[in-house]
Write a structure and sequence with these properties.
Blueprint: H1 9-24, H2 30-40, H3 54-69, H4 89-92, E1 93-103, H5 106-117, H6 125-133, H7 137-141, E2 145-150, H8 162-170, E3 178-182, E4 189-199, E5 224-227, E6 249-254, H9 258-274, E7 278-279, E8 288-293, H10 300-316, E9 322-327, H11 328-333, H12 335-340, E10 346-348, H13 356-363, E11 368-371, E12 405-409, E13 411-412, H14 423-427, E14 431-432, H15 435-447, E15 452-456, H16 473-483, E16 489-493, H17 502-510, E17 517-519, H18 527-533, H19 539-552, E18 557-564, H20 571-584, E19 588-593, H21 612-635, E20 641-650, E21 653-660, E22 666-670, H22 673-676, E23 680-688, E24 692-700
Parallel strand pairs: 6-7, 6-8, 8-9, 9-10, 10-11, 12-15, 15-16, 17-18, 18-19, 22-24
Antiparallel strand pairs: 1-2, 1-4, 3-4, 5-11, 13-14, 20-21, 20-23, 21-22, 23-24
Length: 704
């Protein structure tokens, strides 16, 4: 397959335009091509299927050749280098992120394309044209946005006829391409912009055999490698680790979100079930220490180095210890961690949790291992878009941190590219688990006495869009509700307003096992800030969702996340964040001051960063208002009798137990944890606190 390579910096753009001007100086198409290259400098390129503009087509073709010639050797192609060149386009590209403008005539389509090419300097040129010229009301309202459209030609897309999808994929478009296509079904013309491609990962992980020499993890695609041990300071000795890990001790230190907690539970499962190791809370007794990291907040890397420091010193003094870093910082930093901390044995991306025994096999030989290349994470692949890849079942049986409620991953990764967020870079592309595997994990939990699961996903509303046939998150909720035992509870996090559906609201409102709670981050209240964040919704569209929730499930809890001090956020923009809080009155609100993260666009906007003292003041105002709203939302429970699932003893009062309402509010009341743990009981709420409730036991709902 021929590679089409992107430009290297402004100098290459200038050089290409200079040559191009000499070649087509007499062509009327030059102004269009110069816009094309200006747009490409912002990581896009534009092509056209205008059949009557031969000069433009020829110029674009010539520009592509000059573009390739202007790039220095080794520049990455527009398909990731990990992709095998032997695969064709249909095997490589899983989905296209599309926008479109609908017109009734070819002339209007031509006009729309020209208007788009002539307004590339604006912040959203395609959206501007779509909102004015599109003959489709939905296209106008959404600035032409369709979303991800899969490479399965038999499927219909709500806003785009299936024959247009088929024609588009046959053209093998790149990110940034624009094509005019006519539907034979509707006779309308569609100006289609390809914003992004979702490419299937071909990297596979190989098992390390028990031979005299360690073998590499993975296929050396990406950043998978086994490295020779660097000489250590101090005694300069690399301790020899045991070849038999049975009954050796491990300790896992976890920071971050629920996904990290779930990953740590699976890590523990691998260590205990595969290697027969035992856990310990005492770091001085551990033979293996795993630090599971989070990279969302500022100074995450320095916090990791602070944690590693004492362990590194102990290893320099001869302690036998396998030291492993996993999680998002591991994925983000990769081999750099090994270079900075030579005592570190392994840097392990979250996707390699099941292969920890293989990694330790290499560590036994005194080597350092980095395993952060992408890989597939779907069981059986029978209903996955990646079924040709035959991915490994990596959902190892976890060691749960609780006996009543459990985390269950339903989708890994994120295809969104919010300008402040590192998650797509650290968690990879979206990969949904099958409904059958999710149900089986939930049934296993129920059989072992668990009464509640929380379904996890960075963007849980994207569940199933990478599957064949395509599934939806609402379908998953309905499927689980139908098949799980009575009195079992289901929660979920986290929703994305851009993909949230009415069907999910209906599921939460009507399904007896699905708890009445929504977690849907809004991040900011100002439309311009949301646009710069690349969130894909507005203040009004978010409020429409809230209004629908209040209408269908009026007693449901609504929680959210918000960021203050995003680059360019003015005082006026911040006031709109407070306004949305006043409109919604969230039950819970996670609030953060913006901090620049590595490899994100917003971190590069150095001239628009908000001063730290301003961010701190805004955060204080948000938290004060959130506290006020939290108490208001708690007060509605006073005098009501609520169904409570008993979970734990109150750590501050051993005579009390703690449980949760269906809406997720913690409730404390006098009880006996040994007899009531895992039971559903009726509790009269007598007192409201900001984030919790006090009550009195009325009657047990347990049926023997």
């Amino acid at each position: 397959m021929m590679k089409k390579q992107g430009l290297r910096g402004p100098e290459a753009v200038v050089a290409v335009l200079g040559l191009l001007f000499q070649a087509v100086s007499n062509s009327g198409a030059f102004s269009l091509v110069s816009h094309r290259y200006q747009h490409h400098h912002h990581q896009r390129s534009s092509s056209t299927s205008l059949e009557n503009e031969f000069q433009l087509s020829a110029t674009v073709a010539a520009a592509s050749e000059l573009e390739a010639a202007a790039v220095a050797p080794g520049k990455q192609s527009w398909f990731p280098s990990r992709i095998q060149e032997s695969l064709d386009y249909s095997e490589l590209v899983q989905s296209l992120y599309l926008r479109h403008i609908v017109t009734e005539t070819k002339e209007m389509a031509d006009l729309a394309l020209k208007q788009y090419l002539n307004t590339l300097d604006s912040s959203d040129p395609f959206g501007q044209v779509a909102s004015i010229l599109s003959a489709c009301a939905a296209s106008r309202d959404e600035q032409g946005k369709i979303g991800w459209v899969d490479n399965f030609l038999q499927q219909d897309v709500t806003l785009l006829p299936s024959d247009v999808v088929q024609k588009l994929y046959l053209l093998e478009p790149k990110a940034g391409d624009v094509h005019i296509l006519q539907s034979t079904q509707t006779k309308q013309f569609h100006v289609v912009l390809v914003e992004e491609l979702l490419v299937r990962h071909a990297a596979q992980t190989t098992t390390l055999s028990n031979t005299n020499e360690p073998k590499p993890v993975g296929a050396f695609s990406g950043r998978n490698a086994v490295l020779p041990r660097r000489k250590l300071p101090g005694k300069g000795v690399v301790p020899t680790l045991p070849s038999n890990w049975a009954h050796k001790k491990y300790r896992i230190e976890t920071s971050g979100c629920q996904m990290n907690v779930a990953d740590s539970e699976r890590l523990a499962g691998v260590l205990e079930h595969d290697l027969q190791m035992d856990s310990t809370d005492a770091s001085q007794d551990a033979d293996v220490i795993v630090i599971n990291t989070c990279s969302i907040r500022d100074h995450a890397e320095q916090k990791l180095y602070d944690k590693l420091g004492p362990y590194a010193a102990q290893k320099r003094n001869g302690r036998q210890l396998a030291l492993i870093v996993t999680g998002c910082v591991a994925q983000q930093e990769g081999e750099k961690l090994l270079k900075r901390v030579p005592e570190l044995d392994c840097v392990l991306g979250p996707q390699y949790v099941p292969f920890l025994p293989n990694v330790l096999e290499s560590v036994e030989w005194g080597r350092q291992v980095v395993a952060t290349a992408p890989m597939l994470h779907q069981e059986a692949a029978t209903s996955s878009s990646a079924q040709q890849q035959q991915p490994t079942d990596v959902f190892a049986k976890p060691v749960r941190g609780h006996s009543v409620r459990a985390w269950v991953n339903v989708i890994n990764g994120c295809n969104e590219h919010c300008t402040y967020c590192v998650v797509p870079a650290t968690r990879g592309t979206e990969q949904s688990r099958t409904m059958e595997h999710i149900l089986q994990e939930c049934l296993d939990l129920a059989a072992n006495g668990y009464k509640e699961v929380t379904l996890l996903g960075q963007n849980i509303d994207a569940y199933g869009r990478d599957m064949v046939p395509k599934r939806t998150f609402a379908e998953l909720l309905e499927f689980l509700n139908h098949n799980l035992p009575p009195k079992f509870r289901v929660r979920y996090v986290t929703s994305h307003p851009r993909y949230f559906s009415n069907r999910v609201i209906d599921a939460v409102a009507n399904l007896d096992k699905v708890c009445e709670c929504f977690h849907m981050p809004f991040q900011a209240g100002d439309d311009q800030v949301l646009k710069r964040m690349r969130r894909g919704y507005t203040f009004q569209s978010y409020m429409k969702i809230i209004d629908r929730i209040r209408d269908k499930a009026p007693d449901a809890s609504i929680s959210a996340d918000v960021i203050v001090g995003f680059p360019g956020e003015t005082d006026e923009a911040f006031e709109k964040t407070l306004a949305i809080m006043e409109r919604v009155k969230f039950d819970n609100l996670n609030s953060f001051a913006y901090s620049p993260r590595p490899n994100t666009e917003a971190a590069l906007w150095t001239d628009q960063q908000v001063p730290e003292h301003v961010k701190a003041a805004r955060l204080q105002r948000v938290q004060a208002l959130a506290t006020q709203h939290g108490l208001e939302r708690s007060q509605r429970y006073v005098g009501r009798t609520e169904e409570i699932l008993v979970e734990d003893v109150n750590p501050r009062n051993p005579k009390q137990v703690m449980g949760r309402t269906r809406q997720g509010r913690q409730v404390y009341f006098d009880g006996e944890i040994e007899s009531q743990r895992g039971e559903l009981v009726q509790v009269l709420i007598t007192e409201a606190r900001t984030w919790s409730l006090i009550g009195e036991l009325v009657d047990s709902m347990h049926s023997p």
